[in-house]
Amino acid sequence: MNTLRTAMLLAAMTALFMGVGFLIGGTGGMMIALLIAAGMNLFSYWNADKMVLSMNRAVEVDEKNAPEYYAIVQALAKQAGLPMPKTYLIDSPQPNAFATGRNPQNAAVAASTGLLERLSHEEVAAVMAHELAHVQHRDTLTMTIVATLAGAISMLGNFAFFFGGSRDNNNPFGFVGVLVAMLVAPFAAMIVQMAVSRTREYEADRRGAEICGHPLWLASALDKIARGAERIPNPDAERNPAMAHLFIINPLHGERMDNLFSTHPNTENRIAALQQMASEMDGGARAARREAPTPAQPDEPRAGPWGKRPAESAPPAEPERPKPNPWGRNPTGPRGAGPKGPWS
Known about the structure:
Strand content: 5-15%
Order of helices and strands: HEHEEEHHHHHHH
Structural class: mainly alpha
């Protein structure tokens, strides 16, 4: 199903690209746009992940220079039954993260230093579980290619401003067509980004909560990331706004997360859905405990195999809440615990 949706999305983006080319240069412009779109689709399939990571100046890390962060991703990938993805750090104070790659065997996850500094160990785990959910659902290829083509469509709209008004081209609509290309193309690309990201974020939230086992960890993380993204700018994302839908929370500074044309669903709605999921999980666990048969208790506790009486069972623990950040200001692990990270 995801393969079919990806093919349909690529066809829609290619058609949009060709339509903009037709508005700018007529039939000749449409054919040129078709060739460019075909080339970009092929390029995006093989190289879009590398381009996105490069645009965000992400640095690959491993168990030597980012031991705790790497260990979190490694444990979650094993829990989800996924190959270990390449793990990257972004030197940015804004807390955020994204995943990319054409398939689970060639996936990468990236977190900002701000995310590791401001979130607890449990919250970081929940965020990376969300990103691994995108990998497992094979969202990463679709979202990365959409980011590439949306950026190209916006660039084509800007190109129309400088070259589309010439009387020497074959544009049948004249200046009106150029104006439509300038205004409609970026808007249409943004609509496609919205359609891709909004539904997939809810699905990744649910699956990520299942992978880490604690929906409230992710709910707490989303709240912190949203508040951090509103206050702290991300210059790399501002220069490349077509990549905004890749991140777990909209990275564009000053953008309201609940506006009509946001690439992300309302953060409060996502948190409410996770809280509801936690309530359902807790209720299901209580029901299972009630329905489980109670073993007959002997009058006197029997001795264990080494002659000791078994310890009395402790009452069930409350759901664990995220703990304070154990890393301080070092995003790659505790100080003095091995080689320093790239920004330690």
